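Appendix B, example 12.
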Amino acid sequence: MEEKGSAKIISVRIDGELVSAHEGDTVLAAARANGKYIPTLCYLKGLSAVGACRLCVVELAGTDRLLPACTTPVQEGMSIKTASTRLLLYRRMAVELLLAERNHICSSCVSNGQCELQSMAQLLGVTHVRYDYNNPRLAVDMSHPRFVLDHNRCILCTRCVRVCAELEGANVWEVSSRGIYSRIVSDLKDEWGQAESCSACGKCVLACPTGALVEKGFAVHEMVKDSGRISRLAVRRAGRSR
């Protein structure tokens, strides 16, 4: 085991290949640093990781449990699989359950063609959903002068919650209730337009992977979100704080 500065360099095996990683890094960070792709939806570089979507699950030698790569730290001697038939089945199931939980009708969504959930379904080969759709009739909050919140499109990834708290410092968003009744809410369940803590910065809209948070006045294919702007901002801020 070598040391690089204050961080130790350890050896782990990813998909059979022996690679180096910094002690304290997550499996996801180590994999991406070594050119290994692991799918994610709730993860966004620069924000805290919560392991909500479970798309990044990996296999770890010595345990039958599937572990979320975004929150599992690497350890010396780990042997990790990021791609297998079992993982593909679990990831497809996760996407199907997300699609079944709410009304993700792509043809009528302003983010059609620019949606991370839609892209993930295509990438994983999800052509149909095997589960019964919940089909809840959820509210669309259009009270904000610039933005729209459509609960029907929300996958509860909490990227909006984290970016608002960790980068903007406004703490507008939170998750209310539990299970299938969970909803993203602003302030004390006020309409978004009445949320006094909102600075209208738009970071939550950029961070949202679906059509749940969008800007008014945009048609299909115009509502392009660059979530990378959030990551670049977070990285620059972290650099200045050191």
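Helices lie at 27-33, 85-101, 116-124, 159-168, 203-207, 228-241. Residues 108-226 form a domain with the Alpha-Beta Plaits fold (CATH 3.30.70.20).
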